[in-house]
Amino acid sequence: MQSLRKTPCLEFPPEMFLCHSVRHSRLRTPATLSISASLSLLSSQTETTNPNNPPPRKGRQAVRRLLKLLSTASQQNQNPHLCEILKSLQCSPVTISTSQASTLISSISNPLISFDFYRFLRSLKPVFQPDSILFSSLIKSQLQSVNPHLPKILFYFGEMKKHKVSLSHDDFCCLFCLVVPGYVDIADFFVRELLEKAEFDECAYNYAMSIYAKHGLYKEAILVAERARARSRELTLEFYSCTMDVYGKKEDAGSAMKLFLEMEERGILADERVYRNLLGVLCKAGWVKLCWVILEEMRKVGCRPDERLAMDLLRRFLKEGMVLEAGCFFKEGILKDMKSLAVYAEAMEETKRPWTAFQLVQDLCKSGLDVSGCVYASLIRGCGKIGLIYVAEKIFAGVKSSTSVENRESVYTSMIYVYSRAQMKKSAEIFWNEMESTVGFGGNAEPFLYMMSMYGELGLIEDVLRMFDRWKNSGCCVNIDAYAVLIDALSKSGKLNQARSYLLEMRRSKIHPSSSIYAYIMDGYLQVGLLNHAITMLDEYTMLGLEADELIASSIIKTLIQVGRLSELEFHLDKFMRQGIKISSGKGAILVEMCKDDSCLRKLSELIQ
């Protein structure tokens, strides 16, 4: 046997010895034989190349596993390039180049095999000379594992230092995005080792900032920016743009404004991206006057905000009463869609300046913009809220004479709202009839509700009932608001049995009553002195567990004071205080006058605004 082992490999194939050394003799496949043969060849070649440093055992095992796992994969995927590399590894491992080794490491995607394979490659000195491509693949294989092992990454960095190899910008970017946000400590290590100790590369710093900011790691992003400032005074617009993006996402208006002033001091002209980020963060912070100043600066350099930012600024300007500034977005053509114009009209309605908005709308119409009826409806409604009936009529006359206005039913609905709010019964009925005969209701329930509310305020119960029946027969879905208006009107007029019957009808229709409906009926019973019935409604309300508000709270307090249930009154007062419910001074004064218990009076005083 000894003589056989001394025989050259050419005369005695190594497969023969490998077959006998395997535990539980098994049948060898051709693939297994070729791998075994290649290992013997590999051993003889490496001994010839570097006899003092033979391949480590784990290194040889790594080659065996690479050949075994990738041979099948390359055949299945029909990858000729990988097949060629494996063939080289089998026949002549010392001829494997770093790019080929990198391909093998990327294909195997196993950090343990990759690490041992590198140890094998390292034993091929002086033939083997690693480069950045190989180290990038090795580090990437470690980072893509379930739990990246920092000591092995440190080992690769030590090897890079030993061989005087440095990673490129692309390598850094590829590796950095793998560790953020999961492994911030490794990311910080990369910044210190790959950025701080290498030649200054602003693009790499910018990339690190953007990746940190993307994942909400603003503190780390700002630290990278400070490191870049410490290394170079010749920073470009791209750096400031990335830093402004970080402050924008962090919503740090003060730092963003300081950065903008720093750019001005250094003579760096801001671009559209910087301006938009700055405006966005200032807008969110509510620095509206400063936003207008920045907008003026943008105009000087030919920049303008995008539609989304313009909408945010529009709302802010309108909230602060900067009407003329808000209108500039439409005059300059930044905003020109119906949605933004509707927002403007609604905001002008809330700020009680519908006529100013109407003048802007007229100017837009002259420029060729077709304005929807919803915009005019908002303006007419705004006129109704502040009692400008004649202005509402003037706007409606302009809409009626135009043939291009769509959604006319919303304009008629708004006019009915104006007249019903002003309790102008005759005018409201004229518009109701005109709407019914010309444009129809189109499933719109608002005109019915406005008319019922007006009749209820005027005490015209029969008209309320008549309008409610017309609503039910119109095909429009009867909602809870209709029942609330109806039950309120019936309760105020003393028709409490009828109000209770409509409450039952609601339940049969599977419409859940609101707390305000119980408040209306309770007040009705108190008004006619039927305290027991009021208590019954209170018990029913409590059993349902409905949400309380000022209206039901004052009704409950009034009822319990009148029936003398002081302990129950204290319980409800404590409950209302916990819920943060407040009662207006007008209603509160009446309740204070009714309450004679000192303890309850103290708690009641805390609820009154």
From TrEMBL:
A Pfam family: PPR_3
Keywords in alphabetical order: Repeat
PPR repeat extents: 236-270, 271-305, 479-513
Keyword Chaperone included in the entry's annotation: no
Entry's Gene Ontology molecular function annotations: mRNA binding
Family membership: Belongs to the PPR family. P subfamily.
NCBIfam families for this protein: PPR (TIGR00756)
UniProt protein name: Pentatricopeptide repeat-containing protein At1g03560, mitochondrial-like
Gene: LOC104586849
